[in-house]
Amino acid sequence: RVGLRGVLARCGSLSEERRWTEELSLGEQQRVGFARILVHRPRYVLLDEATSACDTAIEAELYACVYSTCSAWVSVGHRSSLAPFHKLQLKLRPDLTSELICLGGSD
């Protein structure tokens, strides 16, 4: 579900100890992180730029996995393409003020 078939074909098992940062691209590493969410099924998850190296089609698939697996999530990101996957957006400004915006996404 997270697009790792090519990685598995190239690397074999992902469960062995290796220098994964040297073998996998950043986008592949991010998809492995989402695969871990699917396997461990946490109730809550914190995501920090979790899809920054993925295209928007893969990003949508990855957030669909989170939506179907977790009760709630908080993510940090700078891409406007993330908005549909969230109900609220908290904007933090350099002057230490903030604004909470209702987005109406992911019910």
From TrEMBL:
Domain ABC transporter, chain residue ranges per copy: 17-52
Cellular component aspect of the GO annotation: plasma membrane
Gene3D superfamilies for the chain: P-loop containing nucleotide triphosphate hydrolases (3.40.50.300)
GO molecular function: ATP binding; ATP hydrolysis activity
Keywords attached to this entry: Membrane, Transmembrane, Transmembrane helix, Transport
Family label: Belongs to the ABC transporter superfamily. ABCD family. Peroxisomal fatty acyl CoA transporter (TC 3.A.1.203) subfamily.
PANTHER family membership: ATP-BINDING CASSETTE, SUB-FAMILY D MEMBER (PTHR11384), LYSOSOMAL COBALAMIN TRANSPORTER ABCD4 (PTHR11384:SF59)
Annotated protein name in UniProt: ABC transporter domain-containing protein
Organism: Alexandrium catenella (Red tide dinoflagellate)
